[in-house]
Here is the input.
Amino acid sequence: MATDAIVQVVGVRKSFGDKEILKGVDLDVPRGRITTIIGGSGSGKSVLVKHIIGLLKPDEGEVRFEGRDLCRLGVRALSVVRRNFGMLFQHSALFDSMTVEENIAFPLVEHTRLSGRKIRDIVREKLELLGMAGIERQYPSELSGGMRKRVGLARAIVLNPKVIIYDEPTTGLDPIMTQNVDQMIKEAEQKFKVTSIVISHDMASTFRISDHIAVIHQGTIVERGSGNEILRSDNDYVRRFLAAASSPHREAMASRGDS
Here is the structure.
């Protein structure tokens, strides 16, 4: 296992009834980098992420966060560890009846004993860092799709997590908005010094932002590495998957300056 891995998945197996979803997954997530997990529908991406954040326990294997096996933690200790993870859901999952400030403040209200004034200060700080100062009183319905994504990110980082998980962050977005979200993910990595785990089906986005890519197929990681290493893979499934993807991943690699 890599010594700089903040998350380590070791031999994880998981079945639901007679159906085995994860079949011995091994994965290192490098600290402070962007790791993207790609694969077809039903390959096990979402189930793997639920193990990483401790929502599911494996039938076999270990999931370690900074060397601690989540499976061995009690309920209280696991709850504390989970605060190191922030999550940006596919459609931001904002509460329509709450203002931007109330949405972002929600994790602070639920998990801390900070004063109302301190919470408001933290919310304003996160909004300013994401270039959205002054929108605290607006509602999600008043925001553009890109702004809702940034509000969702502000909520994900409000507890200062070490890892942010992005669940299909570019689904349903046009190419320009997709590039804006990609830039947001890169900026978050740099500004907040976080580790990012991205679940994606968008190949252009994947090759544009990722430092490390893992390909999951039929419950196992069949390939991992840099974008160039994935493109040079001789794994038959990886080759077929990339060939079937309509996104111009090679152009995305070129835009990063990779050779």
